[in-house]
Design goal:
Belongs to the DMRL synthase family. This protein is of the alpha/beta class. It has 7 helices and 7 strands; from the N terminus they run H-E-E-E-H-E-H-E-H-E-H-E-H-H. 36% of the residues lie in helices and 18% in strands. It is globular.
Amino acid sequence: MSTLTSADMGELKRPSTRVHAPPGGGSTWSFGGQSPSTASTDHRRVNPSQMQQAQPDVRMKSPRAAPAATMETAPTPGDAPEAGLRVALVKTSSDTELVDRVVQNCFEKLEGHSVSSETFTVASLEQLPYAANKLTEFGGFDAVICFGFLNTQDVQFPAVSTALTQSLVDISVKNARPVVRAVFVGEPRVASVKIKGGWGAEFADAVVSLAELVELQVSGKELPRPPT
């Protein structure tokens, strides 16, 4: 077994540990006889503006105000103009000279009341009820006036007159529209004289008053009471 003396201890070199700080701020570590390794010190200046990518300016547009909503008011029934009366004039093609003059007298009177009218023609007296029924039920007319001539010398005069009157009354009641009979009953000579004097205009006054009565019932107004 060998022992170490103090002389032997002097031959041992204690490793030196020193920190060498070269100029410039770098540092080296040295252990014993090894050559110090120099730490890489690459000092570069970094521009802060380069670290952020340039972005285009974004303009924020304020939202446009929505247009104010407009409220459309529905028209009230009182605002609409009232439609005028419409009267259908139905005449026979027989006895044209007499019948057309009666229609003309009535037409002129209706114009005085500012009432619009349309004229329709049928072949004979027997077809007047059919035309009156169609015009009051589907034609949109407020009233119908039927024109014709019935000669008292005709053997069928009593039967035709009674049937015609009853048919027109039934149609008027069924359709709730005035149907006025403007058929002259008599001889041709007497009819010519009366028609020249304006016979036929009175039927215009009658149908206008009846049509106004129907309008009162439709609108819900009270019917005029007779004077006491």
